[in-house]
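Run: sequence + zinc ion -> complex structure.
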Amino acid sequence: MSETKQKSRQPPKFELIGGNVCLDFINTLDDRPSTQPKELLKNFYELARFGEDTGILKPEELDFFYERVHLVPEEAADAMRRAIHLREALYAIFTAVMNRQTAPQLALNRLNANLHDAALHSRLVQVEGGLEWRFESMTSRCAAMLWPIARAAADLLASSDVARVRACSSPTCQWLFLDKSKNHHRRWCSMKQCGNRAKVRRFYAKKRTA
Ligand SMILES: [Zn+2]
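>> structure
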């Protein structure tokens, strides 16, 4: 019998609260409003971990990169540059849309270049019950995992759901998320993190004025 047992997987590294992979991707620059934002994608391994946490990469595809990426350092560095450019372009576009402003052209051009790349590497394939869009193998190149992210962003931006994209109300957080709550009044990235902190602040403010 062949050895098919998976290595035990690590617990997720990224907090995926965005409700859409492209918003989770934007949130990989943490503490954006501060003077010292925290980069959660410091190298290709972290980008690949993001890929696994979000389901873009299967565990064996993550292993493939972990084992081989040191053999193609330039391609990996290029993928990293593209990833950060795409992320910042998405941030600029979504913030503009949230503020009912025109999206910056440079950012749109960047997203479009990524969409182009994604289209070049996707095709319609016959699956049970019909046809489906499929990307080439996620291990075909280091930047492959940006294809589904760019596509998800374009789909969201062109849909009516884009009106439900919000930034966390905490002034120090401002993570983006898709508000899927029934009454569309979600204010926090997560109640556990920012929601609770705000509650505690209100409690102490009340105590002071009592
Ligand atoms: Zn928050």
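>> summary
Residues 168, 170, 173, 175, 188-189, 193-194 surround zinc ion (CB under 6 Å). DSSP finds seven helices and six strands in the chain.
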